[in-house]
Write a structure and sequence with these properties.
By secondary structure, the protein is α+β, with helices and mostly antiparallel strands. The chain is built from four helices and seven strands; from the N terminus they run βααββββββαα.
Amino acid sequence: MPNTLETTVDISAAPERVWAVVSDLKRMPEFSPNTVRMVPLGTLGPGTWTVNLNRDGRRYYPTTSRIVRFEPNRTFAFRMNENATVWSFTLEPTESGTRLTERRDVPNGVRKPIRLLIDKFLGGEQQFESNLVHGMNETLGKIKTAAERS
């Protein structure tokens, strides 16, 4: 059974500055080692679709998603259409800036065909999730650097 995955980083920048970085989905390949391209189809907001190209090591795979939560300077989340996982970024103001949390939820489990693909081509669920957590930590570190620099 897939696990909820979550990573957090404290950033020395105001939530508005962090939001400007994290909500620019076209920049996601700059931050995420698993994202090659993320293209929103229209203005960002609830219901906006994205077309994505992802990778796991040398393996590439396309996905699509739909934004399911969008509250500027606070949170946004998108649901992956292929496996129904929900990825979110949540910003919390702190005394020194912003706490940013990236999370992957699996509210209804992963459908059997996707689980078979993960097992056959992506090293199995445990390895796949380990790679995702590593990527999430790398993503948050790069977002931190970009937000503190701007």
